[in-house]
Structure formats: C-alpha cells, structure tokens
Amino acid sequence: MSTYLRGDSSSSNQSMGGATHVTLCRCGQEAVLKTSWTETNPSRRFLGCINYGTPAYCHFLEWIDLVVHHRSRHVIIRLLRKPDRLEKRRRR
Fold first, then answer.
1. Which pTM value belongs to this model?
2. What is the pLDDT of residue 11?
3. What is the number of structural domains in the chain?
C-alpha cells in the first residue's frame, strides 16, 4: 500500500486542506471506499481494491471504521433483517 496527495478534492478519501490523501492498493490503483454488510462487519467502512471480483484483484483491504461492538452488530443485523420479516408477514 502507498499513499500520495492529489491536488483536487473530488475523491472520497480523506481531504487535507485542498489536497486529497489517496491510498493505493497493491495493484497500484486508487483504493475505493466501500461498506461491508456482512454479519461480522455490518455497516463498517473500508478501502478496497477497485478490481474486486476480477482476476486482477489484489486482496487489498484497509478498515476505516473501528470494529463494531457486538451489541451494535446484533442490533444492526436485526434491523437489516426487519424488512424481510415484514414482507413475509405482508404476504400471509
């Protein structure tokens, strides 16, 4: 991983007074900001390789957010499942 400052501030990466801090993955591409929706890391943001899902994927991942507390994780997962439960009730 490497970082550099870019002159424009259009990136979703961290801004530093007019310049933008950009993180590069192992491929040399600019890492993109994503959000995990897995049960172990719900709503946790991370920087990942732009080539995810392709043969060029380098497996780069850098967490932005801290680990979600187990109680918060439980609440988030229940909230994410709630629309499914409501839809099943509606269909009955």
1. 0.60
2. 43
3. 1
